[in-house]
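Q: Could you write out the predicted structure for this multi-component system? I'm mainly interested in how the pieces pack against one another.
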Amino acid sequence: MTVTHPRGFRASGVAAGLKASGNADVALVVNDGPDYTAAAVFTGNRVKAAPVLWSQQVLKGGIVRAVVLNSGGANACTGSQGFRDTHATAEHTAAVLRGISKPGAKPMMIGAGDVAVCSTGLIGELLPMDKLLPGVNAAAKALAADGGPKAADAIMTTDTVAKNAVAQRDGWSVGGIAKGAGMLAPALATMLVVITTDASADNEVLDAALRAATRVTFDRIDADGCMSTNDTVLLLASGASNRQPTVEELTEAVTEVCHDLAQQLIADAEGATKHIAIEVRGAASESDAVQVGRVVAGNNLVKTAFFGNDPNWGRILAAVGTTSAAFEPDRIDVAINGVWICKGGAAAEDRSKVDLSGRDVTVTINLREGEMGATIWTTDLSHAYVHENSAYSS
Amino acid sequence: MTVTHPRGFRASGVAAGLKASGNADVALVVNDGPDYTAAAVFTGNRVKAAPVLWSQQVLKGGIVRAVVLNSGGANACTGSQGFRDTHATAEHTAAVLRGISKPGAKPMMIGAGDVAVCSTGLIGELLPMDKLLPGVNAAAKALAADGGPKAADAIMTTDTVAKNAVAQRDGWSVGGIAKGAGMLAPALATMLVVITTDASADNEVLDAALRAATRVTFDRIDADGCMSTNDTVLLLASGASNRQPTVEELTEAVTEVCHDLAQQLIADAEGATKHIAIEVRGAASESDAVQVGRVVAGNNLVKTAFFGNDPNWGRILAAVGTTSAAFEPDRIDVAINGVWICKGGAAAEDRSKVDLSGRDVTVTINLREGEMGATIWTTDLSHAYVHENSAYSS
C-alpha cells in the first residue's frame, strides 16, 4: 500500500541523526526501470528551498532514477551554501547507488542530474552534511522492494502517522507516500509526496495526469493557509508492468492516490480536532467555487467556531462576502451537516439541530448562481494548533 | 478625550438589555450644529449588515444629525426584516430627538434620513426591538455634553477597555470613539468608529480627510484577517468652532485620532499577547509594501511563533514568498526588534540575540527593491484568541 507496491521500485528509511529524537530522517526511493520517466509539481511560493530549485532542474531532464528525502531540516533560506549542499547530496546519492547494484542486476547508470532531492523541517538552517551523507549510505544499503513504509516513516515531521496509499488496476498500479501536518495551504498544500507507478508512460502523459490529479486533491486542502517553501509532489514511472494505460486511466489512478494521501494529510493536520469539507455548489464557475471554499476554509473565526462546536453560519457568510465570486448576499443558502441553518442569506432552521459532536463536518454553501461546484477540505483552529506552532520552532 | 470634546456634540450610553451581561449597549451621538456635514467609510465586505446598507443611504444625503449605535447584535444576515428594523430604529431615534431639545435650544429638525445606524454583535439574529427602542428613549434622555465616554462604553463587545481619542488644535479639535477586538482585518479593520470635529468643513473636505486617514490607520491593522459585515467609520462636523482648517490640517488631525484609535484596537485585540509592527522598507511601491506587510501580519505560523517568543524569520520569508511584490529571495533582509537575523535571504545574526520578552515587537523587512515603505500593525495568535472565538458564539 505504498511506493514499493508498483513493480520496479525499492525504498528505504533510516535514522541519520538529523532529528534530535533519533527517529528515522533519511529516505530513498529508487526506480529500477526499465523506464525512468517522471513529472513533478512544486510549491508556488517564490521563496523556494534549495532542494526545490535543484529538483526543478532535474525534472527538466525528464529522468528521475532516485529521490533522496530528509526530514529534520528544510534547507530553505540557506543561500548558496544550501544549494551546494543539495547538489552534494544528489552527487553523493548517485555515487553510492552506482556502487550498490540491485542483486543480480547491472550496476546503475545514474548521475546527480537523475536524483531529485526533498527536504522538510526548520527553515533557515544549514543541514548537518556530516550526518546526512552517511545517512544516504545507510539508506542505500537498506533499499528493499518492500521498503516503502520505512521511507514514509522517515519523512515525518510533526505528522503523527505515516501516510501511504495505493491504487491497484488490472496489471498495473500507482502507489504513494506523503508527509504533511503543518503549513498546509492552497496552491499546493505543504508536503512532500512521492508517487510511483509501474505503468509505462511518457513525460507528457505523466505531467498531464499529475497536474490534473493535484488540482483537485492537494490544491484543495488547506490546514492553516500557510504555503511552504518546500512543497514537492513527484511522480515516477518504471514501466515494469509493461502496461500503457491511457492518460485518462492514469489520471484516474493517480487522482485516487492523491485524494487518499490528501485526506490523510488533513486528518493528521497539526492540532486538528475536526475534518471539515467545505462543499460549494451553485457557483457560476469552478474557480468561483474554489475561491469561496478556500476563503471559508482559511477564515480563523470560522475555524475557531468549529473547534468550539458552534454552527456559526454568520461567520461563514462574512467570509463569503470577502470573495469576488458571483453571488447575491440574500440568495445564499448554508447547511452544516445537512441542516439548512441559513436560507436566502438569513437564519432558517434552528442552529440547535446541528450536531457537531463528531469529527467530520460538512459545510454546504449554495451560491444559487449556476451549476458549478468544488469541495475544499480543511481543519478547525484549536488550542493544539497554537501550542504546536508556538512551543517549538519548526 | 472623546467625541464630546469638540464643541457642538452630545452623547450618551445606556443599558437596554440587549447584552445578557446587563452592561450598556445603546449609544447616541448627536450633532447640535450649526453644521451637519459628514463623511463615512464602510466595510468592503459584500455581505453588508442592514445598518451599513441604511447608513450608506443616509450618507448620500450628506447630512448626519445623529448616530445611534448598539452592541449585543450585528443585525447582519437578517433579511428584509433586519433592514426594516434598522429603518424603524432611525425613525424612532429621529422622533425621540425631535421631542427632546437641547436645554434652551429650538426643537431639533431631524428625520430618519439624518440618522446613521451602527450595530455590532452576533451575525444572523434579529435585534430585540422591544428592548432597543426603549433604549433609544433612555439614551436620548441621557444625552450630555460630556457623554462621550458613556457612548464608548456602550459599544464595547469583547473589548476589555473603552477606546477614546482626541486631537486638539488651535481653536478646534477632533475627537473619536471606537470598538474593535475581533474580526479586525485589512480593507477596514472590523469596528465601529465615530469621529467628531467642531471644525467647519464641507462634505468633500471631510470625505478626503477621512479616506486619507483611514487608508494609513484602520486599513493597516489586522488582528485575525477576518473582515466584518458591519465596519463603519463616521466623521461628523459641527462647525461650532467657527474655524475652517485646510484639508491638509483636517486630514492631519483626523489621522492622529484614527491612528490613536487603531493602536488602541490592536492593543486590545482578542487574545493578543503581542503588539506587532510589520515595517516593510525598500519596496518598489507603497502597494507592494502594504501587500507584504498584510500577508506577513496574516500568517498563522508567524503569529503563533511570536506567541511562543520564537524569532522564526523563516516563516516570515515563507510568507513574503506568497506575495506578488517585487523582490528577489536572496536579497531580503529581516530584523526582529532591531536584530538582523536574516541578511540576503539567509541566516545572519544569532537568533538568541532577539529579545521577545516584551509585549511590543517590531519586524523590519527590507525588500531592497526601492524606496517605498509601509507599516502594518497586528497581534500574535494565542490560546486566548482560540478560546474567545470558540467558547462563545460571537
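A: Regarding packing and overall arrangement: The radius of gyration of chain B is 22 Å.
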